[in-house]
Amino acid sequence: MDWGAVAAGLLTLAIYSFLYRDNPVYKFAESLLIGLSIGYALVTFWQTAILDKLVYPLFSHGQLLLIVPLLLGLMMFSRFSRRLGWLSRIPLALMIGAGAGSAIPAMLYERTLRQVSNSIQPLVTAGGQFNFSGLVVLVGLLSTLAYFYFSREHKGFLGSFAKIGTYFMMIFFGATFGYTVMSRMSTLIGRVDFLLTDFLHYLK
């Protein structure tokens, strides 16, 4: 008997018992999941970050430059002292600055420049064929921008064109919500398949 599958099946049923009502069995499984997740994350962080990237290179390979991040990391613990708490602002400032410096260009490219480049498509391909998808993207882009144009009242052509933008946004929100629901359904199907095959052995 696979005791791992038995334990996983019982814990899965314990989690799904919340569908009936909140109960101590669900709270136990929830607390166990959170505790194991935090423990696994701490052990992984200790091994991959502290030991592999700091302790071993510093003390075994003599990479003395790693003393700088070691001191910055120790300065973070000065938050527990009222007298030396100001020292923690230095590594926090470096983390925020470095994070913003690396995130802003990446997000600018992904969410602005890449979106703009994908929105600009030729209406006629190199082979002389009409690009219908490019027309849909162009109409959707301009109509959605027209919906958010509040300097003029949405009447006449502008109002009708802005209404088309609402349809595009409704399609986008519906597709996003549908994708979220399908991802949850795929997770549910995977757990039900596990319960029926590995746990209860109803299916083979």
List the helices and strands and how they pair.
Layout lengths: L2 H14 L7 H37 L6 H10 L12 H31 L12 H16 L8 H44 L5
Helix pairs in contact: 1-2, 1-6, 3-4, 5-6
Which percent band covers the strand fraction? under 5%
| Oligomer description | single chain
Computed Rg: 28 Å
Percent helix, as a range, is over 70%
State mean pLDDT (0 to 100 scale). 92
Question: Could you give a short account of the major beta sheet?
Answer: none
Order of helices and strands: HHHHHH
Secondary structure tally, helices: 6
Poorly predicted residue ranges = none
End-to-end distance: 16 Å
How many β-strand stretches? 0
The geometry reads as extended
Secondary structure category = mainly alpha
Q: How does this structure look, described?
A:
The structure is a single chain. By secondary structure, the protein is mainly α. The chain has a domain at 130-204. It has six helices and no strands. It has helices spanning 3-16, 24-60, 67-76, 89-119, 132-147, 156-199. The two termini are 16 Å apart.
